[in-house]
Amino acid sequence: MIRAMTQADFSAFWPSFKAVIQAQQSYAFNPDMSEQQAYQLWCELPLKSFVFEHNQQVLGTYYIKPNAMGPSKHICNCGYMVSQAARGKGIARKLCEHSQDLALELGFKAMQFNSVVATNTVAIALWHKLGFATIGTIPKAYLHPERGFVDCLIMHKQLSD
C-alpha cells in the first residue's frame, strides 16, 4: 500500500494536494503554485517521496528529507498529506510509521516537524500519540484564513541514539 511516488502518482493526487494548499489550513505553500512547482517541492527536492495507494487510488503521500545539513544532517523532516475523502481512516498514522522506519534505515537519528499549525489539532494529537514532543512554539507564525495569525509548533522525536 505504501510505495515510492511517481510523477503519474503525483498527477493523480494533484487535486487533493491543490485543495490542501488552497485551504491554507496546514501548509505554508503558495496556494497558487502550479502542479509542476508542487511536484518539484514535494518529489524532487526531498530525498524520497511515497504514496499510500488503495484500490488503485492515491489516498495520501509523504516526503522525507534531511532537516538541515552538515552536523545536523542526522535529523530528518517529513511532510504528510491525505486526501479529504480518506481522512480519519488511519492513513496518516501508517504514513508516519512508515517514515519513521525508513528514517532509521536511511541513518537518521531523529525526526522534526518545523512548523505544525497549532489549529491542526488532529495532526498534533496523532503526532503526540506516535511519540513526538512539542519542543517549541513559534508565536503567530501562520496566517490562518479564519483565525488570523496563529502559532506553529516545533515537534521532535528521537528515533535512536
Automatic annotation (TrEMBL):
This is GNAT family N-acetyltransferase. Residues 1-160 form the N-acetyltransferase domain. Coiled coil: none annotated. Gene3D superfamilies: 3.40.630.30. Pfam families: Acetyltransf_1.
